[in-house]
Write a structure and sequence with these properties.
Acetyltransferase, 12% helix, globular, 31% strand, binds acetyl coenzyme *A, PglD_N, 202 residues, alpha/beta, AcTrfase_PglD-like, Trimer_LpxA-like_sf, six-stranded parallel beta sheet, eight-stranded mixed beta sheet
Length: 202
């Protein structure tokens, strides 16, 4: 039986569970460290994150915070739990695209030829990653954001909802690109960037 443990009984967790169900997982169990959380979208919450090691299942982390996601995914991998890649059947990926363990690709997302997606990433609903992009580990490309061709996004960076990154640019590690921002120049210093064109605010 295909059985998946999802750490994080949140809104994001619900979407991850739905993708897993559509990929043929027959049993889905949630694990969450908050108190008093019994179920998530009809699936049972059966314990805290550390309890997953007592169950015979694959495991994935459905937590938006990239540092927490990385810590927990590394714990799963070190504990010998298989961390799958989840891709919604209505996402479109070119055949040569490589995707790292623990990455989740939502419905309507498109990833074009020559691109690589690292570990523990979220390529959210209707986001697009065009040709020859390099998305490093634990990046989140939010709902409806668009990366043109040959864009690099560094480790742990979060591209906000509806943001746009123009072609041939790099966004370095540990950045937050705000909702609706348009990045027209490479970003080489970590921080929070918003607006059109995107400028650093923090
Ligand atoms: C399925 C899903 O839900 S996926 C998740 C999608 N969610 C997102 O993408 C969230 C993106 N988050 C944002 O855009 C946030 O506003 C952030 C992270 C950029 C900034 O948040 P904070 O650090 O809390 O900044 P704060 O709200 O204090 O704003 C600071 C200033 O920047 C401005 N600002 C904040 N965000 C933006 C933005 N996206 N575009 C333009 N200006 C912005 C604010 O108006 C404020 O300006 P002021 O000082 O003149 O009043």
């Amino acid at each position: 039986m295909k059985r998946l443990g999802i750490i994080g009984a949140s809104g994001h967790g619900k979407v991850v569970a739905d993708i897993a169900r559509s990929m043929g997982y027959e049993e889905i169990l949630f694990f969450d460290d908050s108190e008093g959380c019994a179920s998530c979208n009809g699936y049972p919450v059966v314990g805290k994150s550390a309890d997953i090691f007592h169950f015979s299942c694959e495991g994935i982390v459905a937590i938006g915070n990239s540092q927490v996601r990385q810590t927990l995914q590394e714990r799963l991998e070190a504990g010998g739990i298989h961390v799958p890649v989840l891709i919604h059947p209505h996402a479109v990926l070119a055949p040569d695209v490589t995707v790292g363990a623990g990455t989740v690709i939502m419905a309507g997302a498109v990833v074009n030829p020559g691109s690589t997606i690292g570990k523990g990433c979220i390529i959210n609903t209707c986001a697009s990653v065009d040709h020859d992009c390099r998305i490093h580990d634990y990046v989140h490309i939010s709902v409806g954001s668009h990366l043109a061709g040959t864009v690099q996004v560094g480790h742990n960076t979060w591209i906000g909802i509806g943001a746009v990154i123009s072609n041939n640019l790099t966004v370095c590690a540990e950045c937050m690109i705000g909702a609706g921002a348009v990045v027209c120049r490479s970003i080489e210093e970590k921080g929070t960037y918003v607006g059109v064109p995107a400028r650093k605010i923090k």
